[in-house]
Protein: DUF1275 domain-containing protein
Organism: Candidatus Alectryocaccomicrobium excrementavium
Amino acid sequence: MEKSGREPYFLMCERRWVFHVLIVVAGIFGAYTYLLRGNVFCNAQTGNVVLMGLALGSGEWGEAVYYLIPIFAYLMGAFLSELAPNPVKRRLPIRWDTLLIAIEMLVSLALGFVPLSAPVQISQVAINFIASMQYNTFRQAEGIPMATTFATNHIRQIGVGLAKAVRHLRTGDRSHRTKLLQHFEMLL
């Protein structure tokens, strides 16, 4: 609670339920690209960087260059999501985060019409791009930094929260519990 006794105010885009929905969507994107579009996860780029490094180490230059495509799509998503909010706010009667949700819905709908026979890169690059914009736009849920497109941060934060719980067993300090429980909730 705030000092005035009122509940803190959070924008709709910062509400936990919005993050829950975004995490589910990201999970669906991950399952979609892994199961149906090339056995890769497009929500983050660590795997592509590792695979590019392996290709470079093996002298497979063409394959290494191939990994620049999803990495570049992800980079461009972050780039656009950093530049877009202010012009959107000045020119449109809608917030950037709301517009991004609409874009994600349209991309998801469009991907539903891409035949399985189409090159997997079409779906992968589209998801690389929108996952990056989502990750960069939705940064905190009710005041707690959160990731919506991959679970690694939540797993790390749970580990940190559990360490704080052990560290503060004797002091009775429970200030870390809210953050710990929210990361656990997001991971579930």
